[in-house]
Structures are given as C-alpha cells and as structure tokens.
Write a structure and sequence with these properties.
The structure holds three protein chains of three kinds. Chain A is mostly helical. Chain A is built from twelve helices and two strands. Helix content of chain A is 63%, strand content 1%. The chains are: A mainly alpha, B mainly alpha, C mainly alpha.
Chain lengths: 411, 160, 101
C-alpha cells in the first residue's frame, strides 16, 4: 500500500531507514489499525488518505506560521531594523500572538453585502491552495496523492482561485473591492498562460504529467559533478525564471501586488474582511506560494534529489525543504527590494514579453532533444533563446530616454 | 461504495443545475453554473476519465465562468435580477426529460453493468491525439485562433 | 447502471433546455446551452466507459474536442452579447426585435 501511481511506479533507489522514516511509520500505523479493528479494505484506504492529509496540513500550517514571522524579520533586516523580537526568543512566537489577535477580533460583515458569497470566498481560496499541495512529491515515495495527470490537477485547482477572488470582491458590496478583484483577476488570467506554457517543455522532455516521473527523470550527474536538473539546460533556466516570475504574480506578491496595494486601494478584494477570514486569505496566499515554489523545485530543481553525489545520505525531504526555503527566501528578498509595478506595465510584460519567451522555451526544448541531449543540443537551444530574446528586446524598446541619475545625501 | 458517491454527486449536480436555471439573482445563478460543472467533473472522475474531468474544471470553471461573470458586470444597468422559469419552458423541459427517460428505459441494449477496463493513462490520450486524431487537433487549434480574434474584434471599441 | 448515468445526463440536458427557453437575459441562454453540451459530454463518456475498449478511446476524444469547441463558442457568444449591449443598451432578448417582420 505504498503510494503507487497508476502503472505501479516506485522509486528503485536506495531507501535507507532515515529517508523512509515517515513512510514506514505510516505503514506501521495502518498495520496497527487493521490488526486492532479488522476493518475492510476501503476503510484502510480512507485511513491512509486521512493520515496523508493530516500530515500535510500539519507541516504546511506550521511552515506558514514560521514563514509569517521569518518574512517580517528578513524584511526588517533588509530595511536595517530588527523584525518582531518581543514575543518569545528572537520573536519566533509571534505567530501565536498574531493568531490570538485574529481569533478574538470582531467579525464585521457589511450590511448590504451578499452574505453567502462573502462567507464562501475565503473558504474556497484556502481550499484551492491546500488542494494544490497534494500532488507534489516531498521525498522519495512521499507524494500524498499520485494522480496520473498531476500537473493538470495542480493548474485546474489553481484556476478556480480566480472565481473565488471575484466572489470576495463582489460579495463585499464595495466599489474598491470590486475594482481590486477585477485587477486581481486580470493579472492572474494573464499570467496563467506563461505559467502553464513554461511547464510544457518539462512535460515534453519527460513524457509524462506526473510529478514523480519528473523527479525520476532528473537523476544522475554529468561528469559525476553537475546534477542533471532541468535548470542547468538553457531552456530549463529560461523556463525556470519565467515560471518563478509567473508564480510571483499568481500569488499577488510584490512587485506585483497591485490587487493588494496597501497604499492604493486599502486591501483590494480583502478590504471588508476582518479577523479570522482575513487570516484565511493571508494563509491562502502563503500556501499558494508554497505550492508554486514546491512545484518549481520539483520541475526544475530536481525535487528531492541532492545536488552533490557525496551528500546523498541526507534524507530526501530535507533536500526538498532546503530548496523550498531557498526559493521562499528569494521571494522575500524580492519583496523587500523592488517597488510596485503599475497594472498596465504588468499586462504589457505578460503579453508582449513572457508569452513569446515561453513559446521559445518550448521550441528550444524540442531543439535540445532532437540535437541529442548533449553539448550540441545545449548550444543550439541556447542560440534559439538568444535570438528571440535579442529580437524581443529590440522590438519592445520603450524609446524613453532617462535623465542621468543623481544622488543626494544628507549634509 | 462508489454508487453512494455517484448518487450524492448526481443529486448535487442536478440541484445546482436547477438553481442555475431558475435563480433570480444573476451572480448566484452563475456560481451555481460553476458548481454544476464541478459535479459533472466529479462524475467523470467516477467513470474513469480523469483527464477529461480536469480539462472540464480548467476550461469551464477557470475560463468560461470568469468570462460570464465579467460579461454580467459589463452589461448591467441596475442590480442584476432576472425572471426565473416560466410555465411554457418548464412544460417543454419536463416533456423532453420524460421522452428521453422513456427511450432509455425501453432500450434493452443499454441495460448493462460496468465492465472492467484498463485505466486510461494520459499517454494513451496523447498517442491517440497525435496519430489518429491529429487533423481534428489542428482544426480545433485553427478554430480557437479564429474565435480568439473574432471575440477581440467584436468587443474592441472603435477609435474615433 | 448505464441507464442511471444516461438518466442523469437526460435530466441535466432538460435543465439546460429549461434555462435556455425560459430566461430573458442573453447570457443565461448561453449558460443553458453550455449545460446541454455538458450533458452530451457526459453521455459520450458514459458510453465509452460501458463499451468494449477501442484502441483510440473515441468517446474521450470527442469529449475533449467538444469541451474545446464549447469554450470557443462561449467566448464568441459573450463577445456578441457585449457588442449588442453597447448598441441597444439592453440584454433582454425580448427587446431585441428589430428584425421582426
């Protein structure tokens, strides 16, 4: 009853006991359950799924709590100040204080709002974000649910977020909420296309939609040194950067947080929400971020594989969470460094630059595959990407001349 | 076990479809429409066609429902309300349902139970799309491009 | 068992017909048509499931193409509704009777 995909695919790699500790613990628990209760087969399956779900929720809600305080501390350090440091050692118990504050706040609902939609919107957004976490492989044999079309499931669930954002904006009976919701939906729809098309080269090269197979296809090391991750190929590097930026936009993070612009339209579609519902929106945004970075690590960075052959004894889930943390740190770094872009700049960028570049990645991956997957393929696909990139940068020149930059310091 | 699930999902789907056809508030009807298609996708999952179910969620709820919502917002002059069902339409729909059910129950060749089938992998669908169905695939691509350009031309505001 | 699925699909089709016939807002007529297409897809998948498997899974293919075509048709239909609204300032199909003889 180990998680098998539809054609019985199991990783044949070395499975030492620390690596498989969670899988073995789950098997032991299920064995205990069936011995104690002598239940029919389908009860054991339901129990197995429930254990997966609880483990997933436990890990990611803890990570969410930790990340909310770590983000504020890292942002603080970038801005040359301490972050929260009063509650607990180094401020690490801040999420507890935040949670208590959110829970005891009064739940205000606007008087003439649409009560059902106002209530359902945060639930739907959070549900979509958590569902998307279920198909990512977190370690060797540690995918919660192996579905044959795993990547398609991820994106289908992510696309229901747009409707829920609209429900939040409409149900608040507030013109600014509506405006924020429309902007958010326009931004999310525009960037869904580059997001999905940059995944296409990986799907083409691997030949399957299951994330497990994508991790399996990134095994081995060239020259014994460099791992065969897709990010080390030209089309993979470009696709990774495009996927990463599209993920930033999909989760409404700075520099693309026009829908949440705190200085512009209060909080966009989340304006009329207080207390626990606001915390749910917040949680859904962070869990969406985890899902996108988890998928980026799986598709391009080799999932739970280690980068150096010497260090393969370190368990697979530790490598996965290390990569996840590195990508999340880059997200926080970007938030602290870059200013907000305008909505028309965001749209132009999506349709005029990112879409052609993502199509180029697909062509470059095909060129890489058919020129043999070695040095010749590398060079030819790099040439394809370089040609399109230079053509696009020449065509999209904004023809504006900037004044030379002057610095003024306090005397 | 799966027939209990089937009955529940079918009841949910039909209730949501009825709500979408008769509710007076436009936004509620649109969201019931989205819920109907969640139910239909769940039925597809039960019948073993997971790829089609996921494509249905992706296209209908992620795209068509959002389009409908935007169009409602762009074409209203007051708070959205619409008249629900009327008697002529209801009679015709019930007559159609009665006729179809009579035809289904009378046909002996569809009174069969579910055979065991191989699980349908995405690989088989891909192989079929690229070998036997490659011409329809190209035609659908052309059709979608034409629809995209046509929709854009229809709603573009004329420059004065 | 197949009869049950077909009856569900017939009910969904009739509900779509109800929506298409009795609504006055143009968008909801389109929604009714989409529901009828969804019911037809359900029919195709049900017949695929209960039939001897052919090598290219025909029912699945038809359903996939039908979803794509329905999406294209919804897009163009909604664009038409917006264009008509801009001209006549109404979406009530009872008032769009300029071509009446």
């Amino acid at each position: 009853m180990i998680n098998q995909s539809i054609d019985g695919f199991l990783h044949p790699d070395v499975s030492n006991s620390v690596d498989q500790i969670f899988v073995n613990a789950k098997q032991w628990l299920l064995g205990l359950l069936s011995w104690l209760t002598n239940a029919p087969g389908w009860v054991i399956q339901v129990a197995s799924s429930l254990i997966n779900i609880f483990a997933l929720l436990f890990v990611f809600l803890t990570l969410f709590a930790l990340m909310s305080v770590l983000e504020r501390k890292i942002l603080g350090r970038i801005q040359n100040r301490y972050g929260p440091n009063r509650v607990g050692p180094f401020g690490l118990l801040q999420p507890v204080a935040d949670g208590i504050k959110m829970l005891i706040k009064e739940d205000i609902i606007p008087a003439r709002s649409d009560k059902l939609m106002h209530f359902l919107a945060p639930i739907l957004i959070a549900a979509a974000a958590i569902l998307a976490l279920g198909v990512i492989p977190y370690g060797r044999n540690m995918t919660p649910f192996t579905i044959d079309g795993g990547i398609l499931f991820f994106f289908a669930v992510g696309s229901t977020t747009e409707l829920a954002v609209f429900m939040a904006g409409w149900g608040s009976n507030n013109k600014f909420s509506m405006l924020g919701a429309m902007r958010a939906i326009a931004q999310m729809i525009s960037y869904e296309l580059p997001l999905i098309i940059t995944v296409l080269p990986v799907v083409m090269v691997v030949g399957s939609l299951t994330p497990d197979r994508m991790v399996a296809a990134q095994a081995g090391y060239t020259f014994g040194l460099v791992p065969r991750w897709f990010v080390f190929t030209p089309w993979g590097a470009t696709a990774f950067i495009l996927f990463f930026v599209s993920g930033l936009v999909e989760s409404n993070r700075t520099p693309f947080d026009v829908p949440e612009g705190e200085s512009e339209i209060v909080a966009g579609h989340m304006t009329e929400y207080s207390g626990f519902k606001y915390a749910t929106f917040f949680m859904a945004e962070y869990i969406g971020m985890f899902a996108i970075t988890g998928l980026a690590a799986t598709l391009f960075l080799g999932g739970w594989r280690s980068p150096v052959q010497m260090l393969e004894f370190i368990p697979s889930y530790i490598w996965f969470f290390a990569k996840l943390s590195a990508l999340l740190f880059v997200y926080i770094w970007l938030r602290g460094t870059l200013p907000r872009t305008r909505i028309d700049q965001i749209m132009n960028f999506a349709w005029k630059f990112m879409l052609p570049m993502s199509f180029t990645c697909v062509i470059a991956a095909a060129v890489w595959h058919y020129a043999g997957r070695g040095l010749r393929g590398w060079l030819w696909s790099f040439v394809v990407i370089a040609i399109v990139y230079t053509a696009l940068s020449m065509l999209l020149d904004t023809q504006r001349k900037f004044a030379p930059r002057t610095y003024r310091f306090a005397e | 076990m799966s027939s209990v699930a089937f009955v529940l999902i079918a009841v949910l789907t039909l209730a949501a479809a009825l709500a979408a056809a008769t509710l007076q508030k436009l936004m509620h009807a649109t969201l019931s429409f989205a819920l109907t298609f969640v139910g239909v996708a769940a039925l597809f999952f039960l019948l073993g066609a997971e790829f089609v179910g996921l494509a249905l969620i992706f296209v209908y709820i992620g795209a068509v429902a959002v389009l409908v919502v935007f169009t409602i917002l762009l074409t209203r002059r007051d708070v959205g309300k619409d008249r629900g069902a009327n008697w002529g339409g209801a009679f015709l729909a019930v007559a159609m349902f009665g006729g179809l059910t009579w035809a289904i129950l009378k046909t002996q060749s569809v009174a069969i139970a579910a055979p065991h089938i191989r699980a349908l992998t995405v690989r088989r669908i891909g192989e079929a799309l690229m070998t036997s169905y490659v011409w329809p695939l190209q035609c659908v691509g052309l059709l979608l491009t034409a629809a995209l350009i046509g929709a854009l031309v229809l709603v573009m505001e004329e420059k004065q | 068992m197949l009869q049950v699925v077909l009856i569900v699909s017939a009910a969904l089709f009739s509900t779509g017909l109800l929506a298409a016939l009795s609504r006055r807002h143009a968008i909801f007529i389109l929604i009714g048509i989409e529901m009828m297409l969804g019911a037809a897809n359900l029919n195709f998948i049900a017949f695929w499931r209960f039939s001897p498997q052919s090598q290219p899974p025909t029912g699945i293919m038809i359903a996939i193409f039908s979803i794509a075509i329905a999406a294209a048709e919804a897009a163009v239909g909604l664009a038409l509704v917006i264009a008509v609204y801009r001209h006549y300032r109404t979406t009530n199909v009872d008032h769009l009777n300029q071509l009446k003889g």
